[in-house]
Amino acid sequence: MSPFSENPRRSLRVIILDDDYGWRNSVAFSLESSTGIQPLVAASGREALNILSERPIDVLVSDLLMPEMDGFQVLKRVRMLYPQTKVILMSGDFGSFPISSHLMIEQGAFAAVPKSEIIAVLPDLLRNL
């Protein structure tokens, strides 16, 4: 039984954004297996923003280091255009980004989580919404 099946509320609408096919699908599969939530997936910031323009999304889980539009740029656009959408940033190396994870949260991220921990902590983060 899914930990989310006890809750009569509707299922959260989630996008997993990562330019890496393996990570994107691994996080999506894990989320669906552990919570029953069937997330949408996006390979670029532009693709995620297109999805957001078409339907309401509760949570965007975004990789931080991506080509063209990084996760922090996505965060800023989502905060401006879709303020109701929570953004969780994930990264394999927060240290290589010029902005600290603390500042990312101050700038509107719901959480900043290392990729090595995202599969384990994402269900609990979503449970708190």
Quick description:
With 129 residues, this protein is of the alpha/beta class.
How is this structure best described in words?
It is a single chain. Helix 4 (101-106) links the parallel strand 4 and strand 5 (111-114). A five-stranded parallel β-sheet has the order 2-1-3-4-5, with helices on both faces. The protein is globular, with a radius of gyration of 14 Å. The protein starts with 13 loop residues before the first strand and ends with a helix. The protein is built from five helices and five strands. Helix content is 43%, strand content 17%. With 129 residues, the chain is of the alpha/beta class. It has one domain (14-127): 3-Layer(aba) Sandwich (Rossmann fold), CATH 3.40.50.2300. It has helices spanning 21-35, 45-54, 71-81, 101-106, 115-127; strands spanning 14-17, 40-42, 59-63, 86-91, 111-114.
